[in-house]
Write a structure and sequence with these properties.
Largest sheet: none
CATH superfamily: MFS general substrate transporter like domains
Number of domains: 1
Helix content: over 70%
Number of helices: 19
CATH topology: Growth Hormone, Chain: A
Strand content: under 5%
Oligomer: single chain
Order of helices and strands: HHHHHHHHHHHHHHHHHHH
Distance between the termini: 17 Å
Structural class: mainly alpha
Radius of gyration: 20 Å
Number of strands: 0
């Protein structure tokens, strides 16, 4: 179960991060403005919000594993097809379908692992699973560095073709991963009830869950808005604003990715040690400080990017590390998949506008100033977490 989640999330990261890395080349190929380029990411993230919510609903009805397999196949196939795009409109369509699978994979996978993990180790286990995001991202950067160094103007196409690799994870999932007992019991209880697919969505806004749902959405917006505002544009920032080559950009990104891995792991342990709320607040405050410091390093002081790259990655990914476990603990079994899918991915849907907002603002204020939008996301996390209960050690079934 652990290795299936680890591999799935890492491969998801590989596919997703090929887009920010290739965004500059795509803009050149299709003669796009920075705003149009930002909309490619925005469409991907908006579709992922729909896909995640739908996957959450279906995972409560069909089981976590079945939906997990469908979502992995979806994002793998459409990432590869993106490499065949002949114009901007085709790219938007393919990335939209990729987003459906990308969002759904988290909704099904995070809940599945949370339901089988012991309560006292749930935070660190999800933290280690999420750390595979950094590994997948690192593999994407390595592939980007090699392909863009040798493949010429169509390099971005070859990078997307590699996106078919996650489809091979389906063989492992199909043979080795079973649904959690909680999921099986929930479906057994629901078998005799004649409720619509959308009844779970409506339940999130009943009086007993409405406040939890809305505050959790705020957390989802904040952690993802901060992340996507900064990391969508980070390769372009390093290349255009700091004057780094393709190889140099990959090297500087590797430092941030190392910090990202540490952030996931450290946050996972902190969630089990000091609790969910203090950990979110700690990493969110750090996120504000690091985003501002990193983007305003003076020209000619690129060595400082290496120094601040690690804490930037730690703060951004540490903020993301606890969402799967925290959201799973906030919702009862009957709507757990729906709850996690909706709050995480509705948050992502709103956060999807952060990259396009950065792109639009960059034409007026410059890219480094526009990337400061990411700091606003972390403020939203603090507000949302302060209104939610502490769930450390909560038993879920």
């Amino acid at each position: 179960m652990f290795w299936a989640g680890f591999a799935g999330w890492g491969l998801d990261a590989f596919d997703f991060n090929t887009l920010p890395l290739a965004l500059g080349a795509i803009a050149t190929a299709f003669s796009l403005s920075s705003t149009e380029s930002g909309w490619i990411m925005t469409v991907t993230l908006l579709a992922s919000a729909v896909g995640g919510a739908l996957a959450g609903l279906l995972s409560d009805r069909l089981g976590r594993v079945r939906v997990l397999m469908i979502t992995i196949a979806t994002f793998a196939v459409f990432t590869a097809l993106s490499g065949l795009s002949q114009n901007y409109e085709q790219m938007l369509v393919f990335k939209g379908f990729q987003g459906l699978g990308f969002g759904g994979e988290f909704a099904a996978g995070a809940v599945l692992i949370a339901e089988v993990a012991p309560a006292e180790q749930r935070g660190r286990l999800l933290g280690y699973v999420h750390s595979s995001w950094a590994i997948g991202w690192g593999c994407a950067v390595l592939a980007y560095t090699l392909i863009f160094s040798y493949a010429g103007p169509d390099a971005w196409r070859y990078l997307f073709f590699l996106g078919i690799l996650p489809a091979f994870a389906l063989l492992f999932v199909r043979r080795n991963v079973k649904d959690s007992d909680a999921s099986k019991e929930n479906r057994r209880r629901a078998a005799g009830r004649t409720t619509s697919l959308w009844s779970g969505l409506a339940a999130l806004f009943h009086r007993d869950l409405r406040r939890t749902t809305l505050l959790a959405v705020l957390v989802g917006i904040g952690v993802q808005g901060g992340y996507f505002a900064v990391f969508t544009w980070l390769p372009s920032y390093l290349h255009t604003e700091r004057g780094l080559t393709v190889v140099g950009t990959g090297g500087y990104l590797s430092v941030v990715i190392a910090g990202c891995f540490l952030g996931y792991v450290c946050a996972g342990h902190l969630h089990d040690w000091i609790g969910r709320r203090p950990t979110f607040i700690l990493f969110s405050v750090s996120g504000v400080v690091c985003v501002v410091a990193y983007t305003w390093i003076p020209q000619g002081a690129n060595s400082l990017l290496l120094v601040l790259g690690v804490p930037l990655g730690v703060a951004a990914c540490g903020s993301l590390a606890g969402t799967g476990v925290f959201f799973s603990e906030l919702f009862p079994s009957r709507v757990r998949g729906t709850g996690v899918g909706v709050v995480h991915n509705f948050g992502r849907g709103v956060a999807a506008f952060f990259p396009s907002l950065v792109g639009a603002l960059s034409s007026t204020f410059g890219l480094k100033a526009a990337m400061g939008v990411g700091a606003l996301g972390y403020v939203l996390v603090i507000i949302g977490v302060l209104g939610l209960p502490e769930t450390k050690g909560r038993q879920i079934a």
